Every structure is written in structure tokens, then in C-alpha cells.
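note to self: dont lose this again. the chain is below, predicted strucutre after it. 120 aa total, dont forget to put it in the shared folder this time
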Amino acid sequence: MTYTVHKRFKGKGIGGDFNLPYGTKCRMEGGLIYAPDGRCVCVATSENGWEHFHEDSIIGNERHRMLQWLYKYYSSGEHGEDFEESKWPGVTNFYWKNLLRTMPTDKLTEYYNERRAKGV
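---
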């Protein structure tokens, strides 16, 4: 599976130092993202994975677009009530970005559309 760099990755990764510019195509295999030179960069679901890469597909691009908008929506610190534990039954990791990132695509789309409808 191919992943795309959506935010330059410049720093240390599993396989050493990297400088991967926006748009670089990487390979994801076994949950790990590999640079074009074959070195392992990071785990796809790590903070570096989420912050710098997304699946290079129509769905991956759409999820990235929705997540970016939701990050901005919540970055003001408002709307924190959306992440009260009582609203997320069965969840063990209540980090707000994790809740959004791991949401199934159909639920993420619905969630995103509800917040967009608020006119923000």
C-alpha cells in the first residue's frame, strides 16, 4: 500500500534521519512506513505516522481532508464536550485526536458533516 507525505517529515525515524518532502510516496507494509530508499520511517499509527502521512487513495485523501478540518475545529479548545467519556462507550483511549483518527470512515464522514453543518 502506498502512503503520501502530507507534511514534511524531517527528523529521526526508525531507520535513521529523514527529510521527506510533501508529496513523497512511501510504502506501508506490516504496519510500518518505508521511505523510497527502503529504510523504515515509523509505525503507521504512531504520532509521526498520523502527523506526516496518509494512505494514498481516494478514501485516504478524503479522511485526511476531514481530519485536518476537524483538528482546526477543535484546536481552539472549544467544543471539548464532544469528547466527554460518556459519549464514547467502549473506548479506552480518550485522546481526542485518537478518537477521530480511528473512527470508521462512514462514522467519520457523518461526524464531520454534523460539525460542518454547525456553520463553523
